[in-house]
Amino acid sequence: MNTKNVPLECAEVEKQIKPFLDWELNDTDAERFINHLHECPVCKEEFAIQYLISEGLKHLEDGSAFNLNHEMGIRLDSSVANINKRRVYNRVMIGLQVVSVFVLLFLCVFVLY
Ligand SMILES: [Zn+2]
Fold it and tell me: Global pTM?
């Protein structure tokens, strides 16, 4: 794809397709990437082509059927699910840390007085 006249955001998204497919993007970048794909048919088509090349070849090798749109949807949804799971986990961990600090403070006050 010629990236000369494409907005910068599209050029960045295009560069992130391979790292996204290899699960190498961090959550923030992956989320921006997915949101951009939902809004930009040009990048979505480029993603579909690269997805077809990377995943379609695997299916050719093992001889199984391949539905591009279905498989692509699953891949994008599982990224969103992973991002959401990590977000919930992080919130729980922060909550536990806050609780731990209060327990420690309470124990300090309790022991000192
Ligand atoms: Zn785009």
Answer: 0.73
